[in-house]
Amino acid sequence: MNEVKRLIFKVDRLKKSYGSFNALNIKKLDIHPGTIYALVGPPGSGKTTLLELLSGSQKPSSGSLYFENDSYKTNWLGKIIKHEEIFYNYGYEEFGSSLTVGKIINKLYGKKSNTLMKRHFSGPRFKHLWDRSISNLTKGELHWVGMVLSLESDPRVLLIDEYGVHLTNDMEQEFRSQLKRMNRTLGTTIIVSSPNEALVKNFASVLIFLDNGHISKIRSRSNRPPRSRHSGKRKSGRNNSRRNNRNNNPKHRSSGSKDNHRSSNNKESNRNK
Q1: Does 264 lie in the same domain as 141?
Q2: Cα separations (Å) of 235 from 238, 245, 249?
Q3: Nearest residue to 42 (alpha-carbon basis) of 167, 211, 179
Q4: 234 and 208 assigned to the same domain
Q5: 79: containing domain
Q6: How many domains does the chain have?
């Protein structure tokens, strides 16, 4: 009997429309647990819409979406009930733009908020963000806050929109190393989106390319072009050159002749005996 592979997300004929505009139309997509995925595509390709649907921030227009084989539930108002095990880096905006960063973190983490303040907001660079409202933050500041909360939330599934777009190279490398550590040690399923393939191709195991709301192709690390093997040839070339040098070296020739002389003397002595 064939074992059915466990999926963390399953998408079946999923569509999302805003009026007459069709933002997303995905026939099928399977997301496996413990894997790092990257949604790649230009602005307007459907990356953010897909992440919002997976997080429960938006409701599909049609189709089916499952989290661990269970469909998303809605409350009596028809709003999707979000899963606590899924964290979306822009999901905190549902608390309202008038709340300060500190109050949102307090709502999310309770007593742990004091620890987070000392860990991330005590330095001069980000201290001023703690008492500022969400509506007064720049896109870069919003993204940084979302990345900090992503690392501190310790979810089973982490969804990160606009990965690395508003970060410096040093900040992106630091966040990337921590995300890879989360995936490696905790088995966290991570889905990031980025318009820049070069930024995520060595970070994600699977690249999902979106174009005009459709999946144009899916490329896993095993399907990527192999690296050049010239290094092996150079190595064998160096070994051959070493052998040639060794053969042409007078020391090696003299030692070889000595060995031959010894063997001939031994044969001669054996005959005399």
Answers
A1: no
A2: 5, 15, 21
A3: 211
A4: no
A5: 9-223
A6: 2
What type of residue sits at position 267? K
- Give pLDDT, residue 223: 57
Strand pairing class (189-194; 157-160): parallel
pLDDT bin (cut points 50, 70, 90) of residue 153 is: confident
Q: Comparing C-alpha atoms, which of 189, 186, 196 is closest to residue 165? A: 196
Claim to verify: residue 258 and residue 217 sit in the same structural domain: no
Tally the residues of the chain: 273
pLDDT digit string (tens) for 9-61?
A: 999 999 999 999 999 999 999 999 999 999 999 999 999 999 999 999 999 99
Residue 42's contacts (CB-CB under 8 Å, 6 or more residues apart) are 195, 211
CA-closest candidate to residue 179, choices 145, 213, 208, 204: 204
**Residue 188 pLDDT exceeds 70:** yes
Which is nearest to 56 in space by CA: 144, 150, 167, 159? 159
User: Which pair of tokens denotes residue 216?
Assistant: 């144009």
pTM above 0.85, yes or no: no
For the range 127-131, what are the long-range contacts, defined as Cβ-Cβ under 8 Å and sequence gap of 24 or more? Answer: 129/101, 130/100, 130/101, 130/102, 131/100, 131/101, 131/102
Q: Quickly state the pLDDT bin for 252 (edges 50, 70, 90).
A: very low
CB 206 within 8 A of CB 37: yes
